[in-house]
Amino acid sequence: MKHIGKLFRFVRPYWKLSLLSLVLLTSQVFLDLSIPRLIQRIIDQGIKQQSMSIVLQTAALMLTISAASTLVAVGNNVFSIRVGEGVARDLREAVFAKIQSFSYGNMDQFTTGRLMVRLSSDTAAVQRVFQVSLRIGTRAPMMMIGSLILMFSTSRELALTMVPLLLVTSALIVVFSARMEPLFRSVQQKLDRLNTVLQENIAGSRLVKAFVRADHESKRFEVVNQDFTARNIDVMRFMSTMSPVLTIFVNIGVVVVIYAGGLRAIQGGMSVGQIVAFSNYLLTTMTPLIMMTMLSNTWANGIASARRINEVLDTVPEVLDDPQALPLPDTAQARVIFRGVSFQYNGSSDNLVLEGIDLVAEPGETVAILGATGAGKTSLINLVPRFYDPSSGQVLIDGADIRHLQQDSLLAHVGVVPQETILFTGTVRDNIRYGRPGATDEEVIAAAKAAQAHDFILELPQGYDTHVEERGVNLSGGQKQRIAIARALITQPKILIFDDSTSSVDVETETKIQDALRELMRNRTNFVVAQRISTVLRADKIIIIDRGRVVAQGTHAELMRTSPIYREIYDSQLGDGFHATEAQPALSGGAHV
To answer: What are 187-197's pLDDT values in tens digits?
Structure first.
């Protein structure tokens, strides 16, 4: 219950609609509870005394009350639906906003499939709880309480005989509801896994087809689908046992009422109308109990989903602004220093990805980072925009620890071209100015030209207004990379980070990109992660990382003399006959070797 209670803040903006819905529901309960009394009147005063006028008057009153109850019920449904849908909308926005605040470390903890379920299925389950609570959830207990009071007012002795039956029935419902919540939570966990496999296969459909693994993936999906189905069957089987059990108790109650009430009627202690009215009130007491059983399924599902939503809402981003954080000024020189930096993805000191990194990147310098796959190159540059915080040590910009800088201010001065190119649905123009929505068309074109993207964009069906499909599937890998480079350049950052960003373009295009970027990079601090050594030959500083440590650094000429690892990389890619003067100009913002 506490998990649902924590989400009640999303109902507060709709308290007026909720209150109006409850007022209408209360009115409906009073109207419905008056019907058995009117039936008693028809029997005892109309039929028994053979008074047709009382029968007709009472029947007309019953029809009027039924019509009024119908109108009130419609109003209650309309307002409760508006509350439920409003809560669902606000909850989805809150969860989405929370996800946007997550650091990279938080995103590592939640899979895409799990987050999708929380935004869709879990939110819908919580919506049903609030929506149904304003209808059946409130009506059922009110009907029970009202019926009990009227049962005692009709026949106190007969009502007392029903109390043990009602207590046993209530106890069964409590036990049933307590067992339902963990069952529904396990169903949602199975749905998490199902969605994760589904998302992986949709995103990687081309890879699946390329490696002829469709049968394997079908079997993998079949396993999680069958697991999800089996767990749903278990839950439904458990749910289906409760309704017949409660129906038995209802029938037992009716039999007891007819038997005990019949004896009292024979003795002159009750009228036939009272027995009929009491039977109706018993049904309106027991039927809500059955309704509560059905509602308990919704509540159990909602509580399980609320717990999972609160996991997201309660998650504290690993990277947060210091209360005294200062903005990075526009006049920043962007001198970047790594001082004794170590890093591990789960925050512990075991299995460090980076260890004892000391590095200085001067303003205007291009620092190239080389190393084997898994050496820690991307982990290193992810610390500069503070996608992660180091486990120990400091990353400084102009002498200020980046943990004491405002994140938005820091990121406004850092342009990143990631290893994995991500484009959004929309136009090519919108994707280029994604980080700077107010950029003019001239600035968009200038950035595209610098990234060697302008020519191919003009060849697209609508040029810069060409629609980019989901994940950029209507563009080649090289085209997407060049758009991503243009997107980083248009923000005019003080620090530029290229994470193997030219790997999908040919050498000739890479040369043109580097030539165009050289002037743009001159007054910026640049980090370049590359697989091709020809890309970084003329960088101002080349860093060799091996198993998370800097094992060598210097210019190309210096490393050729002092670093066996660098010479090995050089010889394996370019051969002994290749000379630096034959290499294409590399990304460089300063002096050349």
So the answer is: 877 877 887 78
The CATH architecture that domain 2-313 belongs to is Up-down Bundle (1.20)
What's 419's DSSP letter? Answer: S
DSSP β-bridge partners for residue 392: 342
- Residue boundaries of the structural domains of the chain: 2-313, 336-413+493-582
DSSP structure string for 103-128: -HHHHHHS-HHHHHHIIIIIHHHHHH
> How many degrees, rounded to 5, is the angle at CA 365 between CA 360 and CA 370?
70
Closest residue by Cα to residue 118 from 314, 252, 260, 254: 314
Of the candidates 405, 383, 381, the one whose C-alpha atom is nearest the C-alpha of residue 393 is 383
| φ/ψ (deg, to 5) at 274 | -65, -40
One DSSP character per residue, 566-580 reads HHHHHHHHH-TT--G
pLDDT(454) > 60: yes
Backbone angles phi, psi at 481, to 5 degrees: -65, -40
Q: How far apart are CA 282 and CA 285, in angstroms?
A: 5
The number of CA neighbours under 13 Å toward the Cβ of 497 is 21
- Position 348 scores a pLDDT of 54
Cβ partners under 8 Å of residue 413, min gap 6 = 328, 332, 334, 493, 494, 495
HSE-CB at 332 with a 13 A cutoff on CA atoms is: 26
Residue 293 CA: distances (Å) to CA of 84, 287, 297: 21, 10, 7
> Residue 394 pairs with which residues in a beta bridge?
339
Q: List pLDDT tens digits, range 249-293.
A: 777 877 877 777 777 777 777 777 777 877 777 777 777 766 766
Cα 427 from Cα 67, distance rounded (Å): 55
What burial class does residue 50 get, using C-beta atoms within 10 Å of its C-beta: 0-12 exposed, 13-18 middle, 19+ buried? exposed
Q: Are 295 and 144 in contact (CB under 8 A)?
A: no
The full DSSP string for 271-313 is: -HHHHHHHHHHHHHHHHHHHHHHHHHHHHHHHHHHHHHHHHHH
- What letters, b where the CB count within 10 A reaches 16 and e where it falls short, cover 291-303? bbbebbbbbbbbb
Asked: is 336-413+493-582 a CATH 3.40.50.300 domain? The reply is: yes
